[in-house]
Write a sequence for this structure.
């Protein structure tokens, strides 16, 4: 429904890094913001450890934050910003870094779990017990986020890490997907779709449900690292 796609994504299995960025809707040049964030992540150095990989991602996102603040000042607008969620693979671990409401999910043993927690007003209301998950999906303030790259001079990021097991599947997505498709339907697609078809099926489902925003989905599946000499995580093509 939008003329300009303000989403951008990174899918570099050989380098163990994936990301989704969503330019802030209603603000100036959101597409520029998301592309700049993804370009910054493309410059990450090869990891020497999970801790170093996460630290490097955080540092590059801080650089992107300063660049977006400078660009906003140059254009004389209040802000140019983007959400971001990053997945990083090193050895038997995955780390993730995020700001905003782009999400990371994990499917393990037939169950789907959201690993990130939205930085949004609606999430704050959910944590207080004021809103249910279903009410949150349709709340009028669902697009109001509290953190984003470029939103403020000081960028606050959250990060975490998880040990990966064979068969784990990760979904990175913008809120264009999560606002339209519930977790039960996400799990159904990820559990039944052919490996390479899952992202397309998720996007198609979100479009069928209304497609009110740009929709991005990146699906990554973990394979046994001892089965062959290859990257631990192989994403859908």
């Amino acid at each position: 429904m939008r003329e300009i796609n303000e989403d951008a994504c990174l899918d570099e299995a050989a380098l163990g890094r994936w990301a989704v960025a969503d330019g802030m809707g209603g603000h100036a040049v959101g597409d520029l913001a998301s592309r700049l964030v993804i370009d910054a992540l493309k410059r990450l150095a090869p990891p020497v450890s999970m801790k170093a990989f996460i630290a490097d991602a955080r540092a590059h996102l801080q650089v992107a934050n300063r660049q977006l603040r400078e660009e906003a000042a140059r254009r004389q607008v209040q802000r140019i910003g983007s959400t971001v969620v990053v997945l990083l693979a090193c050895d038997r671990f995955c780390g993730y870094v995020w700001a905003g409401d782009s999400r990371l999910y994990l499917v393990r043993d037939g169950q789907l779990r959201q690993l990130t927690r939205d930085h949004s007003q609606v999430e704050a209301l959910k944590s207080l017990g004021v809103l249910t998950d279903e009410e949150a999906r349709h709340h009028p303030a669902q697009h109001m986020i509290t953190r984003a790259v470029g939103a403020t001079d000081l960028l606050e990021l959250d990060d975490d890490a998880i040990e990966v097991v064979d068969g784990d599947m990760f979904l990175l997505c913008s809120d264009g997907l999560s606002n339209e498709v519930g977790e039960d339907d996400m799990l159904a697609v990820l559990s039944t779709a052919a490996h390479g078809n899952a992202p397309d099926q998720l996007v198609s489902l979100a479009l069928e449900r209304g497609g009110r925003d740009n929709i991005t989905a990146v699906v990554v599946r973990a394979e046994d690292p001892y089965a062959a000499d290859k990257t631990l995580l192989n994403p859908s093509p």
Remarks:
- The chain has one domain: 7-235.
- The chain is about 30% helix and 25% strand.
- Residues 50-75 form the longest helix (26 residues).
